[in-house]
Each structure stands twice: as structure tokens, then as C-alpha cells.
Amino acid sequence: ANEEPPSTDLITLTRHVLSDQIRLGSSATGDLTLLLNAIQLTSKFIATNVRKARLINLVGLAGETNVQGEEQKKLDVLSNDIMVNALRASGKTAVLVSEELDEAIFIDDPYKGKYCVVFDPLDGSSNIDAGVNIGTIFGIYKVQPESTGTIEDVLRPGREMVAAGYTMYGSSCNLVMSTGNGVNGYTLDAALGEFILTHPNITIPPRGKIYSFNEGNSMYFYPPTTAYLKSIKYPANNKSPYSARYIGSMVADVHRTLLYGGIFGYPSDKKSKSGKLRLLYEAFPMAYLTEQAGGIATTGTQRILDITPKTIHERCPVFLGSRDDVQELMRFYKEVP
Ligand code: AHG
Ligand code: MN
Ligand code: MN
Ligand code: MN
């Protein structure tokens, strides 16, 4: 038959990132490669805890509330600690911002490096105890020239990030990342303990057939959101309506959107005036990946990556996905009062 033998030439995440470094020659120091190695390690470490959470009493609440007023789950706290420890130990970071920490962490010498990492250690907390997909989101800035690492180094538009990505803990563990040169996806081979390139050069289909919103908030939605949703559920000209898919873990909903196309949205509404998702460590990294994959990420009226954050935990409305779908949504935001 036609069967191909198994590959003896695996492209691991480290090899793939290293090949970028080799391509850039002497202008690359290898620091970002080492930082990304530290991030991969945190994802493997979190993944193994997620897998056995039910067995080792890691489900349920930790007993504390974070700065956004959310009850922290044990896995939120554990994942945060795993990331802070590994990022500090990498020697490559200067400033860390986490969903689970009120204030930024400034790394002192001798561990201080040139990069700032903003992260959501565990995304989709409400899904943990049901065994539904959850994830980790990260974005990376380089400190500004001359800076020794201050809050200004992370209060910058998302377009200035040098890399962003997420890891999804699902039926498989997938790390999806961009360093500004397209989007690649890797799958964890648990036996090897390595992320293997399985989704090279991810591009979002220009139009999809799926919408992903928490429609339970419909009574609070503003008219443009409502009118847009109506247009895809009751399309004109005999077209088929869109399918609804909403997991409630941004990582999983965005992952599906990158692969299948369509639109994901968490709008601002009468109850959540700025939306729910956090700009620095949820909206920016996902907007970065979406654009790198050929899609659009907007608040409805503004490109997300152009926003300059004023505070580290601020929120923003998010619509992202296939180019044509998001453009249509933007038209509603322009035309519906
Ligand atoms: P987190 O678990 O990190 O706090 O993030 C939850 C976010 C995001 O994952 C998801 O898209 C959204 O909250 C779901 O919100 P609703 O439950 O309001 O739909
Ligand atoms: Mn949370
Ligand atoms: Mn989150
Ligand atoms: Mn979280």
C-alpha cells in the first residue's frame, strides 16, 4: 500500500524557533529562544497538572479572590506560580503581568532580562471542574531601548509585541504561537515531552459558518451586536444560518476560530461596559495571532492592537475571526445607531 513510514525528522518547537534564530544570523542573541523554551516548559508542567487534577485534589476553589473580583481556582493559583517561577528563573524577563496578580512583578538582578511577559496562566477557569478545554495565554514585549523594565514597557499597544501565543489543554495539548512571521501550531507528544510542529502556517478561512458569543447576555447587548447576530441567524436570500459554538474558554473558542473560521465575540454591553476580556493578556495575544493568521480583531470600531493600555488589568470588547465575517460585524457597528 501507500503508507508513509513514520518520520525520523521531527520538527520540535525548539528546533523551529532555533531555525528562525539561525536564519537571522548574528543579529539574534538567542534570548527569545530561551524565553520560549521556559514558556513551553510551563505549558507541559501545567498540562500534566490539568490531566491529573481530579486525582490529586487540584479541583475547586483556592479560597482567594483576584483583583478582578473572581474566585481563584486551585489550578489558577498553581498555574500562576508555575509561570512566575519559570519566567523569573529563565533570566530573560524584566516585567511580568498575570491575571492572578494585582500588581506587575519587576524582576531583580541577577535574573533580570530584556523581555516582558503578560499572561493568563489558566484561561477558562469555569470549565476546569467539568474537564472541558482550558488554556494558557501569553504575550511578549521587549523592553524599550534604554529601559531597565518599568510598567511603561507593558502599557504599550499590542502591535508592539514580539511574540504571542496560547496553549490549549484539550483532547490534545496544543501550543499555537507567532513571532510576527505567521502562526504555527504544535502538538505535545507526551512520551517525548516535546511539542511537535503539526499545524504549520495557520491561516483563517476568509469566511466561516460559525459564530461564538455568550448569547445568554442578549438582554444586555447593544443594538449593533443584536442586529449582527440576527443577520447571521436569519440570513436573507435563502442562505443558511450560522452554527453556534461557544465553549466559554477563550483559548478553545479562538483555537476553533483560527482553524475553522467564523467569528468569536465578547462585546461590551449594558452590564459590562468595557466587555469582559482583559486587554493585555487575553485580547492582545489573540488579536496578534488572528492578524498573523490573516483575520481581523476589533472592538467593533477600533483595531484592538492599536489600543494603548492605561492599566494592566483593563478590559476591552473583542470581535475576531474570519476577515469577511468581522468586516460585516464592523459594518453593523458603523451603521446601526
Ligand atoms: P478566565 O478563566 O481566565 O478568567 O477567563 C474567562 C474568560 C474567557 O476564557 C472566556 O472567553 C470568557 O471568560 C467566558 O465568559 P462567560 O462565562 O461570561 O461567557
Ligand atoms: Mn479568571
Ligand atoms: Mn482568561
Ligand atoms: Mn485565567
What labels would you give this structure?
single chain; 337 residues; alpha+beta; eight-stranded mixed beta sheet; five-stranded mixed beta sheet; 7 helices; 15 strands; globular; binds 2,5-anhydro-1,6-di-O-phosphono-D-glucitol; binds manganese (II) ion; FBPtase; magnesium; fructose 1,6-bisphosphate 1-phosphatase activity; FBPase_C_dom; Fructose-1,6-bisphosphatase
Describe this structure as you would to a colleague:
This protein has 337 residues and is of the alpha+beta class. It is built from seven helices and 15 strands. Helix 1 (13-24) packs antiparallel against helix 2, helix 2 (31-52) packs antiparallel against helix 3 and helix 4 (223-233) crosses helix 7 (323-335). The longest helix has 22 residues, at 31-52. The chain is globular and about 60 Å long. The protein binds 2,5-anhydro-1,6-di-O-phosphono-D-glucitol and manganese (II) ion (3 copies). The site of 2,5-anhydro-1,6-di-O-phosphono-D-glucitol has 13 residues, from strand 5.
Low-confidence stretches: none
C-alpha-based Rg, rounded: 20 Å
Order of neighbouring strands in the sheet with most strands = 4-3-5-6-7-8-9-10
Coarse morphology: globular
Structural class: alpha+beta
**Tally of extended strands?**
15
How would a textbook summarize the main sheet?
8 strands, mixed
Bound compounds: 2,5-anhydro-1,6-di-O-phosphono-D-glucitol, manganese (II) ion
Q: Total helix count?
A: 7
Helix content: 25-40%
Strand fraction:
15-25%
Distance between the termini: 62 Å
Compute the average pLDDT: 95
Give the topology string: H per helix, E per strand. Answer: HHEEHEEEEEEEEEHEHEHEEH
